[in-house]
Design a protein that fits this description.
alpha/beta, 7 strands, five-stranded parallel sheet
Length: 191
């Protein structure tokens, strides 16, 4: 059975960039990982069911639809991780109109049973600037204080994930101009 590492962070923190850099470095060392985006798995199912036309609409779906899509994605990813090292790129929590929704609720954790949960974080002002510069996504406007609160909530959620699964939690800082340091930290977790 392969190693399962969940990598999370608020939108705009750069988690996918850190993941891609770490995977590239590990591949050069002969250590193979497959990266799977949890939201993409959910989105594929939602598109097949004509529930959404773009990813950013998913966070506005009702709780029952969210739960069903999470279950479908977890089953698919668990099957993939049977014999491979896998990185699950996701969010600890999703901000919805009704409040925060756990990105990996109990039924998803039971299916996945990660070895490590990694929180990629940085200064909320940096996240805000990254979001403003990303024209590829349609994101709700939030200030730095709201982003900071979301990161704090994610730490609490990650602690709950660790309590449920027995996994460890690692925080990786992805500060501006220090991407290589963030990649180094993630590589050390993945080795």
């Amino acid at each position: 059975m392969g190693k399962k590492v969940v990598v999370t962070g608020v939108p705009g923190v750069g988690k996918t960039t850190v993941i891609n850099g770490a995977m590239e470095r590990l591949a050069a060392e002969g250590i193979a990982y497959e990266a799977v985006n949890f939201g993409t798995c959910m989105f594929d199912v939602a598109c097949k069911e004509s529930l959404v036309s773009d990813r950013d609409e998913m966070r506005k779906l009702g709780k029952d639809d969210q739960k069903r899509l999470q279950q479908a994605a977890a089953s698919e990813i668990a099957a993939m991780s049977a014999d491979a090292n896998i990185i699950i790129d996701t969010h600890s929590s999703v901000k919805t109109p009704a409040g925060f929704l756990a990105g990996l609720p109990e039924w998803v954790l039971r299916e996945l049973m990660p070895d490590v949960v990694v929180l990629v974080e940085t200064d909320p002002d940096q996240i805000l600037m990254r979001r403003l510069g990303d024209e590829s996504r349609v994101r709700d406007m939030e200030g730095a204080r709201t982003i900071a609160g979301h990161q704090e909530f994610n730490r609490a959620i990650a602690a709950a994930y660790a309590m449920y699964t027995g996994c460890t939690v690692k925080i990786v800082g992805n500060e501006n101009f220090l991407l290589e340091r963030a990649i180094d930290d993630l590589v050390n977790v993945l080795r």
